[in-house]
Write a sequence for this structure.
């Protein structure tokens, strides 16, 4: 019956996931370091100075990956949440909870670096551009998710309530994005068009992709670490958790 | 269907017996709107420009005030548990409660808005668009808000948390609702905005009672 190489459902239980995550974390940290060093080297030393924007443009190597990750993590979080509601697995809720702070951090980083970039490029810290506004709303959605989970004491109820909120949010994200975009086009004047960016040099694109991989690996590593902490917190009453060397000490 | 109607009737009756709660939210709406000219200054050109936005933001905030009570009292006296156990689908009963909430807290806003619009020197045809936009938009606020009210049922600091959860989800309604009036005033025509608002309402009528039901079942586990 069970002739597959790995039985994935085995890792749906916190007990077997905990050691697996422990083994994977150093791997993902190593990948983070490798991609990080390569990406930063390309972005600082290899990528040429931009003809229009000078050296300041190099902030995109942080800004763009952070924005991508903030959106992607919300999708992953909602996928875990949906899985948790559908299959009633405990680990899914823990993963969603573990991902949320990283997602919020990415959204915040993206807003912050965007402001730092906007000041020298457009002469203003903030414009009510469609992308900036949607990113801000995404940040609010993350904060709402974290606040709801923090306010409910029973972890199973917190997981399920958070899951519903994440799913409602994921339905709303495209609606919010397009409504903000349309709102923005109707209120022309203050906005700066970001859509018509000049074609990018090949090395710049590579730097950005490698930095995105670095962010990706970092997010996985941090989420796994947080998931391990959540597992320990919730499963501390069980035999196997008490038998762990790190708990015994 | 009779269960749906009796829930609506019951909630309306309860609201009528406790008029002060309903009136507080209404006066909150009026006061918030009236504060803006005092803060900004009485130039009618400026006020005319910001009127739709202010009326809509005030409608959002006053809806938040009344959302807390949507399920809280029924939860406290155990009625909600009886509704979950009842043979009628919970979604239908929830839809009835949402409709009653709109009739009590949404519809009065729609009726009051033109009077407040006059304070902002909106011309009559713009007031008409404002009414239509609010008529389509306020049910949307009740529907989306019900999800948040169910999620925060019996949770510590529920009121503030509720606004944190629900206000970001209200943004499309705000944009299209206020945008309809602004587009009309600037001569673009409000049809596009109003159709989108109606589309959002149709989506929410289908999905929101369902999501609210799921959230209520989790809260009562």
């Amino acid at each position: 019956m069970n002739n597959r190489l790995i039985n994935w459902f085995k890792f749906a239980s916190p007990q077997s996931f905990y050691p697996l995550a422990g083994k994977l974390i150093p791997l993902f940290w190593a990948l983070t370091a490798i991609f990080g060093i390569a990406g930063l080297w390309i972005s600082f030393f290899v990528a040429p100075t931009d003809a229009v924007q000078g050296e300041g443009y190099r902030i995109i190597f942080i800004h763009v990956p952070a924005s991508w990750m903030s959106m992607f993590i919300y999708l992953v979080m909602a996928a875990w949440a949906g899985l948790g509601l559908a299959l009633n697995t405990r680990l899914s809720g823990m993963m969603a909870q573990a991902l949320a702070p990283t997602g919020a951090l990415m959204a915040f980083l993206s807003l912050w670096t965007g402001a730092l970039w906007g000041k020298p490029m457009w002469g203003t810290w903030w414009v009510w551009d469609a992308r900036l506004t949607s990113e801000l709303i995404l940040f609010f959605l993350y904060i709402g998710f974290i606040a709801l989970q923090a306010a409910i004491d029973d972890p199973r109820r917190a997981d399920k309530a958070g899951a519903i909120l994440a799913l409602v949010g994921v339905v709303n994200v495209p609606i919010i994005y397009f409504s903000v975009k349309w709102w923005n086009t109707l209120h022309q004047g203050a906005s700066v068009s970001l859509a018509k960016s000049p074609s990018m040099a090949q090395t710049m694109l590579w730097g950005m992709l490698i930095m995105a991989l670095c962010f990706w690996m970092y997010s996985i590593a941090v989420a796994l670490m947080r998931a391990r902490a959540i597992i320990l917190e919730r499963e501390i009453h069980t035999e196997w958790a008490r038998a762990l060397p790190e708990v015994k000490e | 269907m009779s269960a749906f109607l009796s829930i609506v009737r019951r909630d309306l009756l309860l609201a009528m017996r406790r008029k002060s709660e309903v009136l507080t939210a209404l006066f909150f709406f009026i006061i918030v709107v009236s504060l803006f000219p005092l803060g900004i200054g009485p130039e009618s050109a400026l006020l005319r420009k910001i009127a739709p936005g202010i009326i809509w933001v005030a409608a959002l905030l006053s809806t938040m005030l009344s959302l807390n009570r949507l399920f809280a009292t029924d939860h406290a006296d155990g009625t909600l548990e009886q509704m979950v156990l009842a043979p009628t689908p919970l979604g239908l009963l929830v839809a009835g409660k949402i409709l009653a909430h709109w009739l009590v807290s949404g519809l009065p806003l729609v009726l009051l808005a033109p009077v407040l619009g006059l304070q902002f020197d909106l011309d009559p045809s713009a007031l008409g668009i404002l009414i239509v936009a609010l008529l389509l938009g306020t049910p949307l606020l009740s529907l989306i808000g019900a999800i948040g009210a169910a999620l925060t049922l019996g949770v510590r600091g529920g009121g503030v948390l509720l606004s944190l959860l629900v206000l970001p989800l209200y943004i499309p309604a705000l944009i299209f609702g206020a945008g309809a009036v602004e587009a009309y005033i600037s001569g673009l025509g409000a049809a596009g905005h109003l159709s989108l608002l109606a589309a959002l309402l149709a989506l929410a009528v289908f999905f929101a009672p369902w999501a609210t039901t799921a959230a209520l079942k989790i809260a009562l586990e």
In short: The longest helix of chain B spans residues 90-119. The two ends of chain B are 27 Å apart (CA to CA). The mean pLDDT of chain B is 90. DSSP finds nine helices and no strands in chain B.
